[in-house]
């Protein structure tokens, strides 16, 4: 396969947008950590708070690694373009492959983090389980 200087440049908008999404996720988590820290200091140390703290720590590590892989992908694309400019196609192919793999790994970590965020919401709602049955069947019955 022959790649041109435009090929790695095609990833720039995708990587930029995903990095913006990762930054927004990080900022939302940072806000939640601060609120949870205040709640932890003022409460009687409920088990749900401990579960949330563990979940948030793991999710923060994931986001850090997602961002690192996104930056790695971006840098590899830039260096790949430079290799194409210098007509070093073997290096360009390798760097473009690394960029694609690191971008893919970043997206897989993002999917894992999304799964963990839903678990965190379930944990947050766990003390209200007796309020209403959230099954799909009951929801449909209530609408009709």
Low-confidence stretches at least 5 residues in length (pLDDT < 50)? none
Main beta-sheet strand count, sense and barrel state: none
Strand residue percentage: under 5%
Fraction in helix:
over 70%
In DSSP terms, counting alpha (H) and pi (I) runs of 4 or more, how many helices?
5
Tell me the span between the first and last alpha carbons.
Answer: 57 Å
Number of strands: 0
Radius of gyration: 21 Å
Mean pLDDT: 86
Class by SSE composition: mainly alpha
Number of folding domains? 1
Overall shape: it is elongated
Task: Explain this structure.
The protein has helices spanning 6-9, 11-42, 47-85, 89-125, 136-143. The protein is elongated. 83% of the residues lie in helices and 0% in strands. It is mainly α and 144 residues long. It starts with 5 loop residues before the first helix and ends with a helix. The protein contains five helices and no strands. The mean pLDDT is 86. The longest helix is centred in the middle third of the chain and has 39 residues, at 47-85.
